[in-house]
């Protein structure tokens, strides 16, 4: 079993992140991933094995090509909208490892962008564009109010219209809300 620390170390590696995004939408072989990342296939076998071990990628298909078996890899399961949007109760328990892995990976990506933006701003005072935002707010709510607020936030994000698609960019919203009073349980 992989520890949270080992998992965070793994997903903070830019090569690992590039592999995960490479196979997000289209299943690919090691050769195809290497070509896209401008790398040698031999340099990807170890990271791909680590990704398979942690289930961050999966083998989607195997094809017999002569005497060789060509494997196709995917990370599509990490981007399943149903899991990202709302995974609770028994479904969350059954998929705890995938859910926690995905959450750590997503938060890490956003934190890396924020860190990069802050470091650039430190050296370039005129920079006014950020690729990541962080905000925190604490409020007193009943449990049912808390659930409703989370649902309203997701509903608001889904309802945004895209009038001028040429001006849009894809943004990821990772919403983690939690109870502050840890001693009540």
TrEMBL record:
Top-level taxon: Bacteria
Protein name in the entry: ArsR family transcriptional regulator
Organism this protein belongs to: Planococcus maritimus
């Amino acid at each position: 079993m992989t520890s949270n620390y080992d998992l965070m170390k793994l997903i903070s590696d830019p090569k690992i992140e590039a592999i995960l995004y490479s196979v997000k939408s289209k299943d690919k072989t090691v050769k195809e991933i290497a070509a896209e990342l401008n790398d040698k296939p031999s340099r990807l076998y170890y990271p791909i094995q680590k990704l398979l071990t942690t289930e961050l990628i999966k083998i989607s298909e195997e094809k017999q090509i002569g005497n060789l078996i060509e494997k196709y890899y995917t990370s599509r399961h990490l981007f399943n909208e149903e899991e990202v949007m709302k995974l609770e109760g028994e479904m969350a328990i059954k998929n705890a490892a995938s859910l926690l892995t995905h959450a750590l990976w997503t938060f890490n990506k956003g934190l890396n962008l924020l860190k990069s933006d802050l470091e650039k701003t430190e050296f370039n005072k005129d920079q006014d564009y950020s690729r990541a935002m962080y905000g925190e707010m604490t409020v007193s709510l009943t449990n049912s109010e808390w659930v409703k607020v989370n649902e309203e936030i997701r509903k608001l994000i889904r309802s945004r219209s895209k009038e001028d698609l040429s001006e849009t960019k894809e943004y990821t919203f990772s919403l983690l809300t939690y109870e502050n009073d840890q001693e009540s349980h």
